[in-house]
Structures are given as structure tokens and as C-alpha cells.
Amino acid sequence: MSRPHFAQDPMDPLLTTREAAQRLGVSLRTVQLWVEAGTLPAGRTPGGHRRIRLSAVEALAHRSGLRPAAPTSLSMAAAGTAPLDLLLVASSVDQLHLWQEVLQPLGSAISIRGANNGYTGLLQLGRKSPDLLVTDLAMPDIDGYAMLLTLSSLSDYSQLRVLAITTQTPHQIAERGGLPERVRVVHQPAPAIAVRAWVESEMTRMGRSPHVDSVS
């Protein structure tokens, strides 16, 4: 979230969002997402332009171990030869382990990344936009509802297919203005197998066969 005006400081220069993205090795849209979520503190110049302290960029890089992302082969993904990239953003370690366990039989058909809190989830989203996202809406450090609305407003993430786990009723979700069209909602208490069923249905929709590894 943006703070009031930033003054120039020769010991801690101000960076544009593009310069911050270049230093962190992520896209401009990713930096904008982190600023909106409060992950990367930002302020504005007297002229109204958003600026980020170099110290804030370096602190985020240090906390997260960010390095320039390795290029990915879009041609492999388009050809269907690469596993689907699935990101799990859970509200606790136990929830994350439960989801990972129920998805394990899908084997090499998917590549699973996981985060046990919203902050780490945002960092994972910033490093690479996944094919599929499963997230809890109730996280102690980040408003999952606001996160999904922000993602839907960014072109890099506007086509992302999402499964949202929530204790909110349909009426409560509607009162907040609803969720983006590509978000499927499962209400708690939701069995972990519901997560796998959604992933399998999305794989089928994409023309991928959900090969299930046999368990001896």
C-alpha cells in the first residue's frame, strides 16, 4: 500500500516500479501486485508518481532470496509436454501438507509449489504465474479475497484458474462484491479430496490426462 509522499534521500535513492522489477528479477506487474498488497512498501513523489526505496527492494530480496528468474519454455507448455504448474497457498502448514498429500497420486502430471501463508504465496506468484492456483481466503497475514481481486485486474494473471477455499457463505461473498469469474469456490469444511477433484477436472478441460500413480 502506498504511503504519503517520499522525499529524495541520496543515501537511499527512490526507484520506479520498473527499476524495482529489474533489480528483483520479476515483471513490472508483479511489483505492482506486491505494492498493492503491502508486501513492498511504496510512496509517492510530490508529483504523484509511485516510488520505492532501494532499501525496501533490498530488504525484500534478502528476506525472500529473490534472484532473476530463469526463463521458461513457453513452447513446451503450449505443446503439453511440461507438467502443469500448480501453486497451493494455504493458511497453515497442516493444511498445505494435507493438500500436497492428496495431490501426490497425480505424480509427474503436475508440478506442485506450496506456501503456508499469504506472504510467501505472493512471492511465489511473483516469481512465476502458475497454471492453477488453490488458495485459502482466510489467511492471517493477507486478505485472500483482496488478493484474488488484485490478480484478476492484472493482465499477467487475468486468465488464471483458481480454487478458493472459504468459510464464508455465498451471501457473504456476494456482499463483498463477488469473486472473479475464473474462481471456483469450495466452502469449509471441505475435504481435501475436493481439491484433487478440481485439479483433475481442470486438467481434463486443458486436454491433459490426469495419470494417477498406483499406490502399492
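(ticket continues) Second input and output from the same batch:
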Amino acid sequence: MVKRLVVVLLLCGGLGAFAQSSKPFAGASLVFQWVEGTPLTSLILQAGSYNFGGGLGARANLGIGVSPSFLELGADLLFPFGVGRLLPYGGIGGNWVGLGALNFFGIRGLAGVNYSTASDAGLFAEAVPTFYLASDATGIYGTAFGIQIRFGVNYLF
């Protein structure tokens, strides 16, 4: 039940940023992730805004694991460093990765760049280091470090 509520809240947050902004986007990316040396490849769908208010951006994302099979949910605050076709940004956020009975709850930082190829599309790349608390049915049993490398495209509305 809690997972369903988290999913709804994250998607509403991302869609809220998307709907209330002058620079909303929706996109997809290919993600190469390593958690304590274990590779996790996924496809991520995201929605949000580079200008949600006060110069901040926000986004929510849903990832589907390709190898191995897993689910990922996340939300980030984005801090753009300028304007124009080449937009570097940083950010902080949180995510959950579910690998069957094993769950990772993460706090992450990110650094990325978005290049607008036209008035309505952009290519982006990000590096996302993450600190995780790992848990299973018996409770929290340790910590883990992970990093994601993301490459994708966003459609700007």
C-alpha cells in the first residue's frame, strides 16, 4: 500500500511541475547504473520542468529495469546554471529501487547538461551518485553506494 501511495505522489509531483511551468518537459533515457559493483540497466521515463519556480526545476521519473528486472521511482529538484541552448544543471533527489524482495532507498546528487537541438527537443547526459539504505523483509540491513550514467532525450512543451 505504501509503495502505491509513493508512486502516485511522485507521478503527481512530476505532472504538477509539468503542468504549472513555462518550460515543461517529458522524456526518456537509457540508464547504466552500478550499485556496489552490480550493473543495473534500465529505461527511464520522466516528466517535469526546468523552471518550476524561483529558478528551480523539478522532475519525477519511473524506471523499468532491463537487466536484471527491477522497478525504480525517483524525484529530483534541479538547479539550472544559466539559460540558452546548452543548459548545465545540478540537483538533489531521492529514489527507490525494487529488486524483488530487496529494496534500495537512495539519496542522490546529480550533475548534467541539456542541449536543445531545436525549439522543442533536447539531448541530455547526467552523472548521478547515490547513497542507498538496503532492506528486505527483515528490515534495514546495510548501506550501499551507487552511480548512474544517463543519456536521453527530452521533449520541451
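Agent notes: The first helix runs from residue 2 to 19. The CA atoms of residues 2 and 52 lie 27 Å apart. Closing as not reproducible unless the customer responds.
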